[in-house]
UniProtKB/TrEMBL annotation:
Major location category of this protein: cytoplasm
Name by which UniProt lists this protein: 3-deoxy-manno-octulosonate cytidylyltransferase
Record bears the keyword Transferase: yes
Enzyme Commission number: 2.7.7.38
Cell compartment(s), UniProt: Cytoplasm
Amino acid sequence: MKIIAVIPARYEASRFPGKLMQNLGEKTVITTTYQNVVETGLFDEVFVATDSQIILDEIVKNGGKAVMTGQHETGSDRIAEAVQAIDCDIVINVQGDEPFLKLEPLQQLIEVFKNDDQHEISLASLKIKLREKEEIENPNNVKVITDNKGFALYFSRSVIPFHREISYHIDYFKHIGVYAFRKEALLQFSKLEMKPLEISEKIECIRYLEYGMKIKMIETNFIGVGIDTPEDLEKARKLI
């Protein structure tokens, strides 16, 4: 299989505009993310897909690869445009605001497809257990619930499942926005109309579920910092 990684990067993020160009140590967030993905050595090609000349110039200036795309509502739509003419089997979508992603969780995603002989999986993604009540109730943390084979049933910014039976222990999982797609599933996704659930939650992977595609969730112990707010940026700077 030919496996590539694409980092969708939008300058005007709704909650924190310009966050990808903020400094982490001596490098910007987007450059840190790009270089960390390249250094895993897992991919035949790595590049940033952006609608921002500022971000494109930043990556090229630092010796990286970047392509310009049109404006899109989701990162998956942006990546679909970028990979249309590229010969590849699997596309890994690494969010530009996840600068601390390491090799092991990316390897786990790739293994999903190497073991999927029936080609039933459209995409795979990561989840991590949430332990603190504040983190579980935070709408910036997208929660995911799965069936007994690890396939996603639903994603939400609300607390799911609702813990009505308090005598019974429930684990809560946060969705980490790193995806591995079959190229054909990604291209199909980009042609599908957004439906009410995706629009309401502002969670792009709900579109796959609404159209009956299978998402395999992999539990990981990876602890990074997704930079959605200025407070997240300060956490990331302390981690650096």
